[in-house]
């Protein structure tokens, strides 16, 4: 196992100079080989992964790397989506730099998942941010100004999270950065334990897209390609969730678990609702799927919050159930989001580089592999049976339904309201996926196709793996029995009975994904048989669709992305705060209209009330400090240096 990860690390490092030298095919091959080695190592780490390696020494302590089963699970499924993105036809303007960014992000993922030292962990965490920025900048799908603004916005919010994690390191690991002692140090902070938990949520939530940080998602994803989105929404999102789970379940004192669990459930639920509401209104593939990633991260955080609540009451079995459900959900999400992100790239190929969600008749022009893979991905993100998304969200509902076991009325009410929020999220997610698939891949095209999409087989592979993931869950869940926390192997074993999935008890609820898949395939034979019989008897017939009695269906009546989502846009106008702008160009007098421009937009929920005031405050502070610091006084400069030396010495002797 360790040999595989060591080989993967070396290959990722070797890919960086190859990409910088613009040796495109060599960089792609090296990166794919490194990702494959990482997949082999992750697979071998299940179900046991107690092996640890000493990488180097920092001062008197050594930096260890070891992988827990939960981390191996998330690395494996996220790595499959990353490998599919690497092997897909590249849409990056600078593919060499794109492979460099992917290699840096993969290195950071390995570090975040396995490093056991706080200082080294922060370095790996920054690798994730830097690698993601390189991916998006190398794609060059937006103008330099817009792409630069989106990436700076992303990096600024991610650095807010990094500062929060740095504060956690100073509080818990200033004397010893090894993770093995952080739980004991955290327990010594009697009155501020909850505050440290909030810092961890801010730090890791910045990458997970927990409110208000999800607002960097659409701009950053929208400036890149779908392949970049598959990596950011897959392995990067997965390891960020693993890191948050380690903090909340391994280090957090039990005394603060109830308040922290309530916060996690509340924040995760609101994040999921807001993210999917904004996803439904998008008319760009990448922006819609970006919000969908934030929504699914919010659902996983709800599961983590439930695990913390059950842990506070000593319900180890239910805590293990909730944590395992989060792993199941994100594992399936990696595959589904990977297939849809890559489908977005192929849709852009057919539309001349545009990622707009509009009727395009792509499925009639593209190979069947695109349609089937994208359909399975959309079904999974909509939680439709028998896909991986259905199994994950079914388990999530069964977990929050266990609220009656909790002693605290506040905790019970939080899980109950969380369940209601999950129901709303699931309904809007279904409509969102119907929109992106139905409007984005079907219908009459506005313009002739630019080219026939090619390289669609990775989409099909990911789609089929979505079905295989769900069908194999009754047996693959056993790989998580020996996770270190929460340590209740019997609880994971109780989640399956033969080919049936159960939430610890058979009489509570049960489903069987493999039987659902088999029954679905059998029922599919009926419409296929009717279609074949009709074709043999009548041949192929073309008839107009029903359009309110019209004999001819004009092109203007085609369903647009805005029209499909307008009803919800009006109903939730207090969230969206929609704006419609109509501009007319006249030819001579105003009676002769030459062109009409219609633009619509939705106001960000947190931007006007949180981010803009902070930006203004920072600009004012920078102007004020600039006048004080750059006053030209030599005595003032010497005083600044003296104060800085005092701060440095104080940090060495007293922290």
Topology, element by element:
Layout: H1 2-20, H2 24-44, E1 52-58, E2 61-66, H3 69-87, H4 95-114, H5 118-139, H6 144-173, H7 182-187, H8 193-208, H9 217-222, H10 226-251, H11 257-280, H12 285-312, H13 316-350, H14 362-365, H15 368-381, H16 388-400, H17 409-441, H18 457-476, H19 489-493, E3 496-497, E4 500-501, H20 513-538, H21 561-571, H22 573-576, E5 578-587, E6 589-602, H23 607-629, H24 634-654
Antiparallel strand pairs: 1-2, 3-4, 5-6
Helix pairs in contact: 1-2, 1-4, 2-3, 2-4, 3-4, 3-10, 3-13, 3-18, 4-5, 4-10, 5-6, 5-10, 6-8, 8-10, 8-11, 10-12, 10-13, 11-12, 11-17, 12-13, 12-16, 12-17, 13-15, 13-16, 13-18, 15-17, 15-18, 16-18, 18-20
Main β-sheet description? 2 strands, antiparallel
Cα-atom Rg, whole angstroms? 26 Å
The span between the termini is 38 Å
Instruction: Please tell me the total number of domains.
Output: 2
Return the structural class: mainly alpha
* Low-pLDDT regions: none
Average pLDDT across residues?
A: 89
Assembly type? single chain
What would the principal axes of the Cα set say about the shape? globular
Number of alpha- plus pi-helical segments: 24
* Helical content class: 55-70%
Q: List SSEs in N-to-C order.
A: HHEEHHHHHHHHHHHHHHHHHEEHHHEEHH
How would you explain this protein's 3D organization?
It is a single chain. The chain has 655 residues and is mainly α. The chain folds into 2 domains: 516 residues, no CATH class; 48 residues. Helices cover 68% and strands 6% of the residues. It contains 24 helices and 6 strands. The strands form 3 sheets. A two-stranded antiparallel sheet has the order 1-2. A hairpin with a 2-residue loop joins β3 and β4. The protein is globular and about 85 Å long. The mean pLDDT is 89.
């Amino acid at each position: 196992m360790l040999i595989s990860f060591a080989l993967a690390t070396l290959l990722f490092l070797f890919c960086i100079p190859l990409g910088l030298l613009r040796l495109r095919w060599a960089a792609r091959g090296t990166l794919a080989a490194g990702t494959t080695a990482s997949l082999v190592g992750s697979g071998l780490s299940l179900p046991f992964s107690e092996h640890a390696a000493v990488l180097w020494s920092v001062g008197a302590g050594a930096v260890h790397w070891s992988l827990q089963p939960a981390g191996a699970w998330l690395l494996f499924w996220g790595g499959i989506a990353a490998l599919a993105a690497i092997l897909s036809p590249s849409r990056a303007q600078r593919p060499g730099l794109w492979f460099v960014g992917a290699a840096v992000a993969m290195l950071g993922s390995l570090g975040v998942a396995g490093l056991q030292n706080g200082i080294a962990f922060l370095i790996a965490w920054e690798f994730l941010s830097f690698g993601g920025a390189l991916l998006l900048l190398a794609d060059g799908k937006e103008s330099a100004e817009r792409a630069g603004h989106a990436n700076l916005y992303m990096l600024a919010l991610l650095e807010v999270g990094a500062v929060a994690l740095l504060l956690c390191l100073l509080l818990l690991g200033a004397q010893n950065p090894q993770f093995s002692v952080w739980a004991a140090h955290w327990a010594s902070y009697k009155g501020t334990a909850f505050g440290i938990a909030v810092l961890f949520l801010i730090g890791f939530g910045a990458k997970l897209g927990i409110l208000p940080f999800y607002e960097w998602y659409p701009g950053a994803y929208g400036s890149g390609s779908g392949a970049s989105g598959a990596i950011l929404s897959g392995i990067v999102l997965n390891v960020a969730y693993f890191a948050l789970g380690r903090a909340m379940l391994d280090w957090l004192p039990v005394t603060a678990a109830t308040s922290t669990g309530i916060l996690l459930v509340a924040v995760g639920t609101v994040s999921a609702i807001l993210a999917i509401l904004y996803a439904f209104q998008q008319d760009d593939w990448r922006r819609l799927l970006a919000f969908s990633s934030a929504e699914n991260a919010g659902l996983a955080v709800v599961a983590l919050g439930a695990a913390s609540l059950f842990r506070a009451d000593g319900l180890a079995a239910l805590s293990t159930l909730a944590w395992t459900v989060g792993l199941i959900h994100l594992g399936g999400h990696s595959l589904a989001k990977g297939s849809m992100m890559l489908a977005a790239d192929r849709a852009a190929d057919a539309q001349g580089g545009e990622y707009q969600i509009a009727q395009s008749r792509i499925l009639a022009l593209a190979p069947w592999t695109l349609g089937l893979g994208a359909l399975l991905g959309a079904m999974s993100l909509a939680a439709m049976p028998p896909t991986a998304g259905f199994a994950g969200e079914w388990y999530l509902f069964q977990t929050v339904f266990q609220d009656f076991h909790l002693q605290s009325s506040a905790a019970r009410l939080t899980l109950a309201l969380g369940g209601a929020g999950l129901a709303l999220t699931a309904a809007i997610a279904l409509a969102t996926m119907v929109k992106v698939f139905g409007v984005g891949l079907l219908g009459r095209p506005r313009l002739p196709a630019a080219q026939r999409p090619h390289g669609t087989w990775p989409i099909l592979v990911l789609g089929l793996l979505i079905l295989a993931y769900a069908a194999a869950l009754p047996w693959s869940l056993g790989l998580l029995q020996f996770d270190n926390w929460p340590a209740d192997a019997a609880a994971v074993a109780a989640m399956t009975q033969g080919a049936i999935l159960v939430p610890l008890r058979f009489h509570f609820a049960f489903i069987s994904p493999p039987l659902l898949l088999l029954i679905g395939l059998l029922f599919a034979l009926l419409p296929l048989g009717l279609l074949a019989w009709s074709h043999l008897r009548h041949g192929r017939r073309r008839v107009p669709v029903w359009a309110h009695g019209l004999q001819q269906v004009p092109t203007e009546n085609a369903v647009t992305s805005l029209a499909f989502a307008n009803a919800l846009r009006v109903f939730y106008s207090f969230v969206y705060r929609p704006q419609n702008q109509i501009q007319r160009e006249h030819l001579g007098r105003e009676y002769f209209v030459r062109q009409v421009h219609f633009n619509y937009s939705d106001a960000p929920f947190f931007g006007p009330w949180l981010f803009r005031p902070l930006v203004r405050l920072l600009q004012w502070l920078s102007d004020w400090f600039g006048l004080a610091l750059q006053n030209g006084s030599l005595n003032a400069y010497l005083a600044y240096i003296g104060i800085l030396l005092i701060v440095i010495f104080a940090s060495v002797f007293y922290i």
